[in-house]
Specification:
The complex is a heterodimer.
Chain A: E1 4-13, E2 16-26, E3 31-35, H1 42-50, E4 57-62, E5 65-66, E6 77-80, H2 92-96, H3 98-102, H4 107-120, H5 136-149, E7 154-158, H6 166-183, E8 187-191, H7 194-200, E9 203-208, E10 211-216, H8 218-223, H9 228-233, E11 238-248, E12 251-256, E13 259-264, E14 273-278, E15 284-286, E16 296-307, E17 312-317, E18 324-328, E19 340-345, E20 351-353
Chain B: H1 2-22, E1 25-29, E2 32-37, H2 40-47, H3 49-82, H4 87-100, H5 103-114, H6 119-126, H7 140-164, H8 168-176, H9 181-210, H10 213-219, H11 226-235, H12 240-270
Helix pairs in contact in B: 1-12, 2-3, 3-4, 3-7, 3-9, 4-7, 5-10, 7-9, 7-10, 8-9, 9-12, 11-12
The chains are: A alpha+beta, B mainly alpha.
């Protein structure tokens, strides 16, 4: 187990730059997730750490050792692949013991370690079977066992839950996290699923177009997105443009499509064009005539609604471009399309974004 | 449907029937055959060392050609299958075109290159690797080279299609968990492509067993394989029923070798030595 350091790593494929000057410190024993849409460079980053691709420039260190030019088989890394990549012609025990056999461990020690790992993944009786004879979720856990059999310096996982159905995916998230913590292995996990990232990670690195947009724990990323991209990609958010027209105390006053808004001041000059982000769960309906105090209030009309069981999502057109999405308790949700509604939120729940 | 069955029936079954039937009649020479069914021709085949030697040379050259074709074809097929650029399609297209150009033209090219005053010999002489021209035309080496030349394109295409079905992630999984490239090939790629290689080697072996042009031209009239001998027996000796016997023996040998291989492959499969 060790830390992983990427310094000024650039990766170009021909004319296309997949990674621009990437700097990343992965701490010893942490579960770090690279999160982003396809093509953002997250998989390339993982493959660089694995050694399947070489950086155009920059260095990669495992612990203190510079492994930039070291072949994958000498990096002592474990990896779980998207399609699991279990060897179909080997038994599950042979699959798990693969790395140990390649490193010339004696037979008895391999057998003992395999048995121990089968216990760890709660599949003690499948050793003699072949990968095709167990379920997808079980293959997944076997792939993890194979990856950690020869204790790796770092464990890499490339969207390992993508092929599983939703229920199984949720239980596997807990399972992977449990295994990772039990073994205390530094883990780099790649996903485009923000829920997965938030459920499992110590830290999340949000990537976009070959660059790191933001790095932090789940709460930090969700509550304090620094860029429009992060705000939009992680969780649902209402984003609209506004112009700063004045400043009072710790607050800004802004104008957007004719609405007056009060926003927290992140240090933005009067006259700046900004984006304002408000999460759907922070918006509420205000009955007409109610006093909304210092809260922002916007008038609009209902243009759509979807029922999601515990909540109803209301789509309210207030002339801000896209309709505002409001999460409301089903019993309070108006049903008639076209109803005039007033939406409000506390100024502190607004994110003012300039990037 | 019926007409096509009849046409195919005549083309495939009837033609085989004619020579199989003919093979059981005594050969009186000059195209005449006896009128009672006997085993004379077969007895002659299995008692005459010349015929047995011909059968042996046919099997040996075919097996060697199949082996070396796959051995040489594998790295090429592997590279093309694992290429990410559009060059792979271009290379593949080149191989397909080269494979289907008529063999006569290709063999003459080969003869020119390998002739005593051809550039291979000139180069070897110039580099003092040999002290006199060495020719492969008219010996068994030449026949093997000719057969390989004939089947190499098929071999590469076949292996390409096999390797393509093996996910690249399996190679990466082997490597990241400590296997060198050699060990990866040994423990992952080879076992997984073995069923395809077996089927491919049978196909190529069958092609070689029946190959006439390459064997005749590179054998230079001095190396006899069964197809070459059959042509000679028909055209020069005008012994139709003996030629029928030779053909029948060629057919049966190929069938037996194929059946045996399929049987062995199935045994391996049930023993889980190869994946199904």
């Amino acid at each position: 187990m060790s830390k992983v350091t990427l310094s000024n790593v650039v990766k170009k494929f021909g004319e296309f730059t997949a990674l621009h000057e990437l700097n990343l410190d992965i701490r010893e024993g942490e579960f770090l997730t690279l999160l982003g849409p396809s093509g953002c460079g997250k998989t390339t980053t993982l493959r660089l750490i694995a050694g399947f691709v070489q950086p155009t420039s920059g260095t990669i260190r495992l612990g203190e050792e510079d492994v930039t030019r070291v072949a994958p088989q000498h990096r002592e890394i474990g990896m779980v692949f998207q399609d699991y990549a279990l060897f179909p012609h080997m038994t599950i025990a042979d699959n798990i013991g693969f790395g140990l056999r390649e490193r010339r461990f004696p037979r008895e020690r391999i057998a003992a370690r395999v048995a121990e790992l089968l216990e760890l993944i709660h599949l003690p009786h499948v050793g003699d079977r072949y990968p095709a004879e167990v379920s997808g979720g079980q293959q997944q856990r076997i792939a993890v066992a194979r990856a950690v059999a020869y204790p790796p310096r770092v464990l890499l996982m490339d969207e390992p839950l993508g092929a599983l159905d939703l229920k199984l995916r949720e239980s596997m998230q807990l399972e992977l996290r449990r295994i990772q913590q039990e073994l205390g292995i530094t883990t780099v996990y790649v996903t485009h699923d923000q829920t997965e990232a938030m459920n499992m990670s110590d830290r999340i690195v949000v990537m976009n177009m070959g660059r790191i947009e933001q790095m932090g724990d789940a709460e930090d990323i969700y509550n304090h997105p620094r860029t429009r991209f992060v705000a939009d990609f992680v969780g649902q958010i209402n984003l609209f443009d506004a112009a700063i027209v004045g400043q009072a105390g710790n607050y800004l006053s802004a104008e957007s499509a004719g609405h007056r808004l009060r926003l927290p001041d992140p240090g933005v000059a009067v006259g700046t064009k900004v984006s304002v982000g408000v999460r759907p769960e922070h918006l509420r309906l205000i009955a007409s005539g109610d006093d909304h105090g210092d809260d922002n209030a916007i008038d609009g009309k209902l243009v759509g609604r979807t029922f999601a069981g515990n909540i109803t999502r209301l789509f309210i057109d207030a002339g801000l471009g896209k309709p505002l999405v409001v999460e409301s308790r089903p019993e309070n949700a108006p049903s008639e399309i076209g109803t005039a509604l007033r939406v409000g939120w506390a100024p502190d729940n607004s994110r003012v974004l300039t990037e | 449907m019926l007409p096509s069955f009849i046409v195919i029936g005549i083309l495939i079954v009837a033609s085989q029937y004619v020579f199989l039937k003919g093979s059981f009649y005594k050969d009186l020479g000059l195209g005449r055959i006896g009128d009672t069914a006997v085993l004379d021709n077969y007895i002659r085949f299995f008692t005459d060392p010349f015929y047995l030697r011909t059968l042996w040379i046919t099997i040996k050259t075919s097996a060697l050609a199949a082996f070396f074709t796959l051995l040489l074809g594998f790295p090429v097929a592997y590279l093309i299958a694992r290429m990410r650029s559009r060059w792979s399609m271009l290379l593949l297209a080149g191989i397909v075109v080269a494979t289907f150009v008529t063999i006569v033209i290709k063999v003459f090219g080969l003869i020119i290159i390998f002739a005593a005053d051809g550039w291979v010999n000139k180069m070897l002489l110039g580099l003092h690797i040999v002290d006199r021209p060495y020719t492969i035309i008219g010996n068994q080496v030449g026949v093997v080279v000719g057969l390989m030349h004939f089947t190499l394109g098929f071999g590469v295409l076949l292996l390409y299609s096999v390797i393509q079905t093996i996910p690249r992630s399996l190679e990466e999984a082997a490597q990241i968990h400590g296997a060198s490239r050699f060990r990866m090939h040994l423990r992952v790629l080879l076992p997984l492509s073995l069923p395809g290689i077996t089927v491919g080697s049978l196909m190529i072996f069958n092609m070689c067993m029946g190959a006439f042009t390459s064997a005749a031209l590179l054998g230079g009239g001095r190396v006899f394989t069964l197809p070459v001998l059959i042509q000679r027996t028909v055209m020069m000796e005008v012994k139709y029923s003996m030629a029928g016997t030779l053909s029948a023996i060629l057919l049966i040998t190929v069938l037996l070798i194929n059946l045996l291989s399929v049987f062995l492959l199935r045994r391996f499969r049930t023993a889980r030595l190869v994946v199904t």
